[in-house]
Write a structure and sequence with these properties.
Elements (H helix, E strand, L loop, with lengths): L11 H5 L2 H15 L18 H20 L18 H16 L8 E3 L4 E3 H23 L7 H14 L6 H10 L22 H8 L5
Antiparallel strand pairs: 1-2
Helix pairs in contact: 2-4, 2-5, 2-6, 3-4, 3-5, 5-6, 6-8
Length: 218
Amino acid sequence: MTNDTLTPEAPAHLLADPRPALTSALAACGDLIHTVRPDELDQGTPCGTMDVRALLGHLVMVARRIECAARMVPTHEWPSDATGLADDEWAPAFHEAASDALAVWSDGRLLDQEMALPWATMPGREVVGIYTNEVVVHGWDLGRGIGRGIVWPGDALVVAEVAIRSQLPDADRGPMWAEVQASLPPSIPWQAPFANAVDVPADAAPIDRIVAWNGRRP
């Protein structure tokens, strides 16, 4: 297929309330994190220069940011990393952060609340979709790094794919990133957050379509 192929239409209830999909994604990712062995922490991953240890820290940070979004914490106060944890603390830290985030998101009124993210302002249900995609993609990264994948729940995959295609509607992100970079002061370093989408076969699995649209090569 080409990268312009539309994804299947998502069931309306998943888009109206994507919180169960986020819950499924966090649970599946957490289960995988619990399997990581100490001898795997220095192995590489598809996520840039991150090894498994660094990716685990990033996933803990993501879970904490999901809570920050729901609490509407000012974005300059959001965590930019998760450090200071021993190698046997990544799984408990992720579980705690995910549980805390989901507890805040249990308030359904947040779905219609406008929320400020570091790059945009949008309703809470879109925030949930974006972070579902991030958890899925980084969970996939982790699976590749340790050689064990995740059987992703279907609702998580549907919400993730809709979210990333909504946020990045074009396969070629060059013009978008050029515009963003041009708007920044020269003193601010810039690195494109997503590569261009990667073509995948017409019969590609949903997880392969998602990571490909995120700029990964399945």
